[in-house]
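hey so i finally got around to running both of the ones u sent me last week. sorry it took forever, my laptop kept dying halfway thru and i had to restart like 3 times lol. anyway pasting them below in the order u listed, first the sequence line then the structure token line for each. didnt double check formatting much so if smth looks off just lmk and ill redo it

first one:
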Amino acid sequence: AAPVTVAGVSYQLTCLLGSGGSCSVYGVADEELVLKEFKEDASEKCWAEAINLGTMKRAGVPNIPRVVGQEGKYLVMAPRAKHFSKDERKGRIFKREHAEQLHNILKVTHQIGWVHRDVRPCNFFIHNGKVLLGDWADAKFVDDKRWKDWHEGCPKGWTPPFVYSLYTPHPAQDWYSFVK
């Protein structure tokens, strides 16, 4: 495959690591990086994820990816972390320390007034023994009144039913998804 240039830096894609509803994630020749390619109709999510990750990093939210570069529909992040296996996602290998790390990520996120909105096993990664929470494109600031349909875009079944009657983001959504 031809290299992809993001913010003036060329990245050689090495393999497809995974894909979801709005993007595909690739490994790059530098093994510490990943490149997310958003679908054309989801390029706004690319920008939102870069902004949200920067906001979370500056606020001290632990164990989240770091943005290396963003341009158009491409987002380059570090570190390149391993997805939890199917056994780990079903709780067979998921350790108490992993749950505590995820709890801490959400606790700090909520303390600064944000809700992740997509806490589910496919967004859990592990790097050097630490759990990372990915996919911050749909995260919302609780007091942002612009979000009338803020629950739109959240995966069906991962939001507690009572939250749909609320008109502002609520941490209950993250905790419900976390324990589901």
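and the second one:
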Amino acid sequence: YSSAFLTATSIFTLITFSLSTHLGKRFGERKMMGIAFFLSALAYSMVYPFGPGHIPKIEWVPIDNVTITNATEVTGCSWQNEWCLTQKRLNVYQFVAANAILLFSYPLAVVLIMSRTTKILGPHPQGTAMGILTGVGSLARTIGPAIFSTIFQHYGPPAVSVVMVCVCSCGALTILVSQPVLATFDSRISRLNAEIFT
């Protein structure tokens, strides 16, 4: 099931990447960027485990000269994490729906942010700005797993879900507040010319 799920998500993401530019032109890039961040926040709120039931615990047995004859994959929640004792299950349909939303919103946001950055800069050299944008993304992908794995280990999945909802909501609010700043170079020049010659 895992390989089929990963294949389906890859195809879905590829389709979203190809549609992002068309959606930006049709509905407006700034509006679609805000929608993408809002949808990401929604997706992360949907992976908050509400149940029903609790997740299974891993049976802990000290390994000392043990011969495994009928090996099976060990699943469940590690006994070392205190939150495992009270952690609710995540419904599989809830998980799939959240992933579907995230697989649409994340590629949409990435493409539109890159596209909008080039349009804001206009004819100015874009290498530095695009390098900074890529570097910030790379830094987030480097330190993000360390931060979130620590949060996960100490507080469990609900804490990670809440933090990600807050981050994506801040992104959506930032885009909403900074709409004038996100105007393209051409529109700023046109507005400036209109102010000068009228």
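quick thing i noticed on the 2nd:
The first helix runs from residue 2 to 27.
anyway thats it, ttyl
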